[in-house]
Design brief:
Length: 315
């Protein structure tokens, strides 16, 4: 198989249930905007067709250690950049590959672009207050891309070229899973990371019982549930729901903040949302500085009306 000179190698995450991770569409979309996407799947060859449907022009299928596979794929493809999801697995593989190959590593990009010198990563930093770019002066950059940040989608490729990649085991130290136990999630809500819509609650909810209002609005919208750290610390909701600097970073189409003041550490995790709606009784709350739509009012009055209006629309 030969690869075009503008190839972008895209390492796709595979879920424990052997599907392509949701981040794959955005990664391939980003790659197609700056070159020819070549997908690397460390897993089942049957997933190659799915990668094609998401825009991979060609697909390399490998087994073994992911970093060894990236090294073999990069040597074969000679890409202009390597895109990896900013997921836990993606970050781990990207960092280890970059260290091993002495490549430059750009983390948590919200977009990629190309200038006359190569592929450039764009980042949202300091709590989303600034947009900055990073570029390398040598070699192909390894770029981790924030889940949900890229809207662009690549045109489907019905019959992508598929090749099994020979991966020589380097024998280098790697993280090994002792055991993997899939958590049984009873919720029908989407997962917070990568969700298209997120409804988050803050200290303004007042108690764990009252936090149920956040769940209700999320269900009416088909959204994931998030929270501020104050709500987590107060025990209203689990830590896994925390959005922000020390929690999850999200880039949904819609982010609804209920009773959240908008501290910089919270904004750091949600400011790249496409549309932000804030409901807060304090007209001076900093969240209104970044909100596209704001309601100044008591959330316990406003939210039930919003839910009723959404349900009336559905009926
Ligand atoms: P508050 O700031 O107390 O705001 C509550 C808001 O609710 C107020 O604006 C109030 O007007 C409103 N309100 C109250 N009652 C009602 C009502 N009935 N109707 C409508 N509005 C109402 N925070 C995060 O969120 N995520 C992080 O990852 C994070 N990481 C941090 C890391 C570090 C190192 C530090 C120092 C802090 C971090 N924080 C983080 C904490 C952050 O600084 C804030 O303390 C926190 O975000 C505040 O949460 P909050 O907005 O829910 O609470």
């Amino acid at each position: 198989m030969t690869f075009p000179s503008d190839s972008i190698l895209v390492l796709l995450d595979v879920t424990p249930s052997d599907g392509l991770a949701k981040s794959s569409a955005g990664l391939l979309g980003a790659a197609s905007a700056v070159g020819t996407p070549v997908a690397l799947i460390v897993g089942d060859a049957a997933l190659a067709a799915d990668a094609g449907a998401l825009g991979a022009a060609s697909v390399l299928v490998a087994s073994g250690d992911r970093v060894d596979a990236v090294a073999a794929a990069a040597a074969l493809v000679q890409p202009d950049a390597i895109l990896v999801s900013h997921s836990i697995e993606g970050r781990e593989a990207a960092a280890r590959y970059a260290a091993r190959s002495r490549s430059a590593l750009s983390v948590d990009a919200v977009a990629v672009a190309r200038d006359e010198e190569g592929v450039v990563a764009q980042h949202s930093v300091y709590g989303g207050a600034y947009n900055v770019q990073s570029a390398t002066t040598f070699g192909a950059p390894v770029i981790t891309v924030r889940q949900g940040a890229v809207d662009a989608r690549a045109a489907a490729v019905t019959d992508p070229a598929v090749e099994t990649l020979e991966v020589a085991a380097s024998g280098r130290q790697a993280a090994t899973f002792g055991a993997l136990q899939e958590a049984v999630v009873s919720s029908t809500r989407p997962e917070l990371r990568g969700a298209a819509k997120v409804v988050s609650g803050g200290r303004g909810l007042g108690s764990e019982e009252k936090f149920a209002l956040v769940d209700e609005l999320a269900d009416a919208l088909g959204a994931a549930v998030g929270a501020s750290r104050a709500a987590v610390d107060a025990g209203y909701v689990k830590q896994t729901a925390q959005v922000g600097q020390t929690g999850v970073s999200v880039s949904p189409q819609l982010y609804v903040a209920l009773g959240i003041s908008g501290a910089i550490q919270h904004k750091a995790g949600m400011q790249t949302a496409k549309t932000i709606v804030a409901i807060n009784k304090d007209a001076d709350a900093p969240i209104f500085e970044i909100a596209d739509y704001g309601v100044v009012g008591d959330l316990f009055t406003v939210v039930p009306q919003l839910i009723a209006a959404l349900q009336a629309k559905k009926a």
